[in-house]
């Protein structure tokens, strides 16, 4: 190296340093870059804060709005009617059990006749379907004005006959019919024509047979049948009275709402008039606003009319309870089949509680006060512990989010339950056992799952997974699984499976990272002690990475609970708390979710209504849950970090 | 200079064609918007040309929110406008104009192999309100009933409540589906399913119509059927221009034929 080059170096450095010292608008460029990067990072934080503010701003008014609604619900006397109406609904459940009990008791006697009749009807429909084209042609010709020539009709009749004969041959006749019956019925089906108004004689005979059997069965269980009918009719008078009162209360509520709506209307029209530029439009808007004045509604007088009938209601309740108990007492003990006996027991067991509820309702009527204010605590309770989500109702909207929460939680648990073992085991394999080529294949493939749009998965759920699960559940040797055979294609299990699929990439990648982060020294130490590969994996690596894996599972849960499209399409949208008495089979029931309800209902509600605000409240809860889950994941991961250090 | 003039003419010409090619945005009822209105729009386009349609059907309520927001020229609704919706539009300086377009019959459907083919009006109410829970209670093969209803934004949801259920609530066992197609899909795959659809869907595969008190929906005797109802188009103000042409077309004999083909009953058929 030439020594004469040396003095040049400081020159170059000076040049660089001088350049860096240039300022832009009085700021040091390095500072500007720093701020630019900082601003990008803080955007995320600011947006998050803005989202929170927006959610809270729209949602928080829910409590006062709903309080006002519940106040009206009370003042108009709807609550008064519900005091009786709600316990009275239990009657329908009991009555339903009894009706099922009756048909279960009759079942062994009428079953054959009914199945034969139904099978015959089904065959007739199928035969008609198969010859539908020819049938329709003849029907149209017969209806035409003026009627077509006789030879044309004859040709059409002949076509139909051939088609019907072919159809009747092609049908599969069940073994319910003897060979002779099949032959007879086949001939009658072949003769089906729109010109015959009577049913085929064979079906008529089967129907008559069924009627006879049914009558005989009903005679045999006459006690049960009459007791059931008596029980069914027991609340008729009470119903009539309650319906009358309900109508009155609803009328009161509607007039309050109308007067409120007119006031709001006036306000809106006036506001619109302020902003409009066109003087004609302005004048017409103001005129309309002035016309929009409601009458003051005197609720106290209206509700007084209701409460004046408390005595009448109590007498009716007592009469109902008496006749229901009498009907129940006359129920026989012997109802034949075990199914019927079980249903009878169910009804009998449910009755005392129902009677108790009715009696309580009768006393509650007296202590009900129209002017009792609705406390804020009750409004909060009605939202967070309410078991009914009823919207767009003609009686009263209720926003209780427990059914939605249970749906979301159960689906998320199913998804995590399925996804955790798959992704953790896959992560262990990829991290510890896989060759480099396998790694190159497995990692991108699993990560690619994340790129599948959730609406596509939803369609797969509707068109493929649902049918698969349903068919699978009908396989005879799998009937020991609780909940099988399933009835609904769209259910929580279906949604859970698809969500598990969506959660796998998150859980897999993060678990794999966690395993990767296990210090090399642990593994070397284990190897040095002579442990086998498997021992190292399960006794050293997995325990060392467990908090990382846990945090991966939690983040997967966060992903699952916020997912919308799949649950909206696949979960079955039934707004009710799943029936947990079904045991593990509960997973095959449909449900609705927090995310699904927002997606389904937000588009239709008018801005600022209580329904709109309730949906934002759901949004707030959902947001809080996601934050909590993520926070937990971070807390767990932090523990893992400190352990490592 | 020559080039400038040429360019200017081109620009003007293209704006002119863009103006002539008007778009009608139609929003609202799924019952109308899934089959009938697209069919009418298609036929109208063939006849009148130079018009394009943008149709989205997510329930009757969305007709009015879109009209009020000015994001639709025509709203489709399977029920009459509610007072508060009229006010909402009015406060945005929009006067809605109602045009009856066709009648629909809400049809109760069950799985095609279900032996039950007739129900009384009371039984229909009890089934959808959740009082009757098992098919064996009404003479069917034993099995829990799966009830499929439309979702709450649907005009049919509310209409059915009023016409068939005396205003009672749907039972908590009911499942809320996004549209008629979904109800057909679920009922046809579930032997214990029951649901309701617009008459246009009554002939779908795998389902059968359940008559009510012995009367099945029949275009020839609409008013005798308990669940018949008119359907409407709504415009903001008196329709003019292409909108008027389209609505006139819907009410013309050519429109009537399409209405009948789509499974609705045209107004001329009602007389």
Fold blueprint:
The complex is a heterodimer of chains A (645) and B (271).
Chain A: H1 8-20, H2 29-59, H3 62-75, H4 78-130, H5 132-143, H6 150-170, H7 179-190, H8 201-220, H9 222-233, H10 236-275, H11 279-291, H12 299-307, H13 310-329, H14 338-367, H15 376-384, E1 389-390, E2 398-399, H16 402-433, H17 436-449, H18 454-473, H19 492-516, H20 520-528, H21 533-561, H22 565-570, H23 594-601, H24 610-644
Antiparallel strand pairs in A: 1-2
Helix pairs in contact in A: 2-24, 3-24, 4-6, 4-8, 4-9, 4-10, 4-14, 5-6, 6-7, 9-13, 10-11, 10-12, 10-13, 13-14, 16-19, 16-21, 17-19, 18-19, 19-21, 20-21, 21-24, 23-24
Chain B: H1 2-20, E1 22-28, H2 30-33, H3 36-48, E2 51-57, H4 61-69, E3 74-77, H5 83-91, E4 96-111, E5 118-119, H6 121-129, E6 146-150, H7 155-164, E7 175-177, H8 180-189, E8 193-198, E9 207-209, E10 211-212, E11 228-236, H9 241-250, H10 253-261, E12 265-266, H11 267-270
Parallel strand pairs in B: 1-2, 1-3, 5-10, 6-7, 6-8
Antiparallel strand pairs in B: 3-11, 4-8, 4-9, 4-11, 4-12
Helix pairs in contact in B: 4-5
């Amino acid at each position: 190296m030439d020594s004469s080059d040396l003095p040049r170096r400081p020159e170059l450095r000076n040049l660089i340093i001088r350049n860096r010292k240039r300022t832009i608008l009085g700021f040091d460029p390095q500072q500007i870059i720093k701020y630019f990067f900082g601003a990008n990072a803080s955007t995320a934080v600011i947006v998050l804060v803005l989202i929170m503010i927006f959610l809270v701003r729209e949602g928080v008014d829910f409590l006062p709005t709903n309080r006002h609604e519940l106040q009206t619900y009370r003042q108009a006397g709807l609550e008064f009617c519900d005091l009786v109406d709600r316990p009275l609904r239990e009657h329908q459940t009991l009555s339903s059990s009894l009706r099922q009990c009756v048909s279960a008791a009759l079942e062994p006697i009428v079953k054959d006749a009914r199945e034969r009749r139904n099978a015959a009807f089904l065959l007739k429909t199928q035969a008609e379907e198969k010859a539908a084209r020819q049938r329709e042609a003849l029907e149209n010709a017969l209806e035409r004005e003026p009627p077509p020539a006789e030879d044309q009709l004859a040709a059409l009749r002949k076509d139909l006959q051939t088609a019907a004969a072919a159809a009747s041959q092609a049908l599969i006749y069940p073994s319910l019919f003897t060979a002779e019956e099949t032959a007879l019925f086949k001939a009658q089906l072949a003769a089906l024509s729109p010109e015959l108004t009577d049913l085929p004689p064979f079906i008529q005979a089967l129907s008559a047979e069924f009627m006879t059997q049914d009558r005989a069965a009903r005679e045999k269980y006459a006690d049960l049948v009459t007791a059931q009918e008596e029980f069914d009719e027991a609340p008729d008078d009470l119903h009539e009275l309650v319906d009358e009162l309900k109508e009155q209360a609803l009328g009161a509520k509607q007039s309050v709402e109308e007067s409120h709506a007119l006031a709001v209307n006036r306000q809106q029209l006036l506001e619109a008039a302020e902003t409009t530029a066109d003087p004609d439009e302005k004048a017409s808007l103001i005129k309309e606003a002035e016309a929009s004045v409601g009458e003051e509604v005197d609720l106290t007088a209206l509700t007084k009319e209701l409460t004046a009938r408390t005595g009448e209601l109590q007498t009716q309740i007592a009469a109902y309870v008496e006749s229901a108990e009498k009907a129940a007492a006359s129920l026989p003990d012997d109802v034949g089949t075990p199914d019927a006996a079980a249903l009878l027991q169910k009804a009998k067991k449910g009755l005392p509680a129902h009677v108790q509820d009715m009696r309580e309702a009768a006393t509650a009527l007296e202590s009900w006060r129209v002017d009792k204010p609705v406390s804020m605590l009750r409004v909060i309770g009605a939202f967070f512990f309410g078991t009914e989500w009823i919207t767009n109702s003609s009686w009263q909207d209720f926003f209780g989010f427990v059914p939605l929460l249970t749906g979301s939680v159960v689906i998320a648990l199913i998804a995590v339950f399925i996804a955790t073992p798959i992704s953790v085991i896959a992560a262990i394999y990829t991290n510890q056992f896989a060759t480099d080529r396998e790694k190159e294949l497995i990692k991108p493939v699993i990560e690619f799952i994340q790129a599948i749009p959730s609406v596509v998965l939803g369609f797969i759920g509707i068109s493929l997974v649902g049918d698969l699960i349903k068919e699978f559940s009908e396989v005879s040797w799998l009937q020991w699984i609780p909940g099988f055979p399933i009835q609904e294609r769209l259910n929580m299990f279906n949604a859970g499976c698809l969500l598990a699929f969506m959660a796998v990439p998150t859980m897999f990648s993060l678990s794999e990272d966690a395993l990767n982060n296990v210090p090399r020294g642990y593994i070397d130490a284990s190897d040095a002690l002579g442990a086998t590969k498997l021992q190292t994996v399960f006794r050293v690596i997995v325990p060392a990475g467990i908090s990382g894996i846990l945090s991966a599972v939690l983040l997967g849960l966060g992903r699952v609970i916020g997912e919308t499209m799949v649950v909206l399409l696949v979960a079955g949208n039934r707004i009710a708390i799943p029936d947990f008495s079904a045991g593990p089979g509960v997973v095959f029931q449909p449900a609705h979710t927090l995310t699904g309800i927002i997606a389904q209902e937000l588009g239709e509600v008018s801005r600022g209504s209580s329904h709109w605000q309730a949906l934002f409240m759901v949004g707030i809860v959902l947001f809080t849950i996601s934050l909590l889950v993520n926070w937990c994941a971070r807390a767990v991961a932090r523990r893992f970090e400190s352990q490592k250090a | 200079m020559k080039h400038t003039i040429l360019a200017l003419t081109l620009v003007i010409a293209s704006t002119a064609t863009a103006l002539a090619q008007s778009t009608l945005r139609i929003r609202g009822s799924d019952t109308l918007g899934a089959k009938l209105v697209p069919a009418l729009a298609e036929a109208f386009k063939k006849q009148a040309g130079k018009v394009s349609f943008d149709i989205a059907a997510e329930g009757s309520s969305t007709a009015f929110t879109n009209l009020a927001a000015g994001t639709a020229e025509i709203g489709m609704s399977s029920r009459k406008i509610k007072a508060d919706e009229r006010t909402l539009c009015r406060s945005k300086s929009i006067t809605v104009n109602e045009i009856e377009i066709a009648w629909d019959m809400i049809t109760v459907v069950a799985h095609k192999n279900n032996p039950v083919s007739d129900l009384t009006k009371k039984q229909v109410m009890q089934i959808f309100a959740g009082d009757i829970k098992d098919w064996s209670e009404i003479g069917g093969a034993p099995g829990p009933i799966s009830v499929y209803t439309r979702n709450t934004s649907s005009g049919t949801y509310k209409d059915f409540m009023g016409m068939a259920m005396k205003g009672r609530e749907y039972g908590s066992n009911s499942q809320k589906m996004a549209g008629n197609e979904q109800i057909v899909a679920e009922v046809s795959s579930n032997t214990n399913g029951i649901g309701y659809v617009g008459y246009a869907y009554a002939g779908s595969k795998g389902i059968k119509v359940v008559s009510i008190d012995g009367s099945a929906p029949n275009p020839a005797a609409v008013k005798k059927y308990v669940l018949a109802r008119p359907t409407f188009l709504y415009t903001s103000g008196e329709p003019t221009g292409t909108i008027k042409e389209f609505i006139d077309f819907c009410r013309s004999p050519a429109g009537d034929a399409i209405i009948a083909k789509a499974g609705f009953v045209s107004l001329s058929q009602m007389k």
